[in-house]
Write a structure and sequence with these properties.
Number of domains: 2
Radius of gyration: 20 Å
CATH superfamily of the largest domain: Hypothetical protein af1432
Largest sheet: 5 strands, antiparallel
Number of strands: 5
């Protein structure tokens, strides 16, 4: 998992055994929800039969496994890996739409997932038109361009902390507009999501 280069065929085969291993671990518990066993076993199956471990097709793949398959792919794309940098939200959306068009993942669930995530999903680091930088806390399905933010850098890029709901507050104290103009990469302006995790959790309590 920590290899910086590409995997060999033998290494890929070993990685692919995790679906069977996950199923076996869950089945060893008498108190586990049976549906989770199916998901652990089938979340890498594709609707066109190109997935693993069993090469299931279409209706052979249950709804929960279809949902988790999409979420798993999104998480894989937007998470850093030793062999590649972390992808952004828009790149992940483009890849998911391509997989849906190719018939590998459920197109209806993909559309619903993308709609729920919004233009700026939680955890996105965004720069505002007044120079401030914030972390998206919550998407807004009604006003997708106006999420709820934790502003962590002021206009001069100095650390600060201020909660903003962009549907309620559209200008700052100097009369400058609150509008997202750029999506930043994780680490830009020395912003670490893990550093703000506790604040983000408290914002929802």
């Amino acid at each position: 998992l920590n290899k910086t280069g590409g995997l060999t065929p033998d290494e890929k085969a070993i990685i692919n055994t995790h679906t069977n291993a996950g199923r076996d671990i869950l089945m060893s518990s008498s108190r586990i929800y049976s549906g989770s066993v199916d998901v652990a076993h089938a979340h890498h199956e594709n609707l066109d039969g190109s997935g693993y471990p069993r090469g299931l097709h279409g209706s052979q793949i249950n709804l929960n496994s279809r949902i988790v398959s999409i979420v798993d792919k999104y998480a894989a794309i937007t998470s850093p890996r030793p062999h590649r940098p972390m992808g952004d939200h828009l790149s992940a959306v483009a890849i998911l739409n391509k997989l849906a068009r190719e018939g590998k993942i459920d197109a209806n669930i993909t559309a619903a997932f993308i709609s729920a995530m919004g233009v700026y999903p939680p955890g996105s680091i965004v720069e505002l038109s007044n120079g401030e930088v914030g972390i998206v806390l919550e998407s807004n399905t009604q006003y997708p361009l106006r999420p709820r933010l934790l502003v962590v850098r002021d206009a001069n890029k100095n650390p600060c902390q201020c909660l903003i709901d962009m549907t309620q507050k559209t200008i700052d104290g100097r009369g400058r507009s609150y509008r997202i103009i750029n999506v930043c990469s994780h680490g830009d302006y020395d912003i670490s999501l893990s550093h703000y995790f506790e604040l983000i959790v408290r914002a929802f309590n």
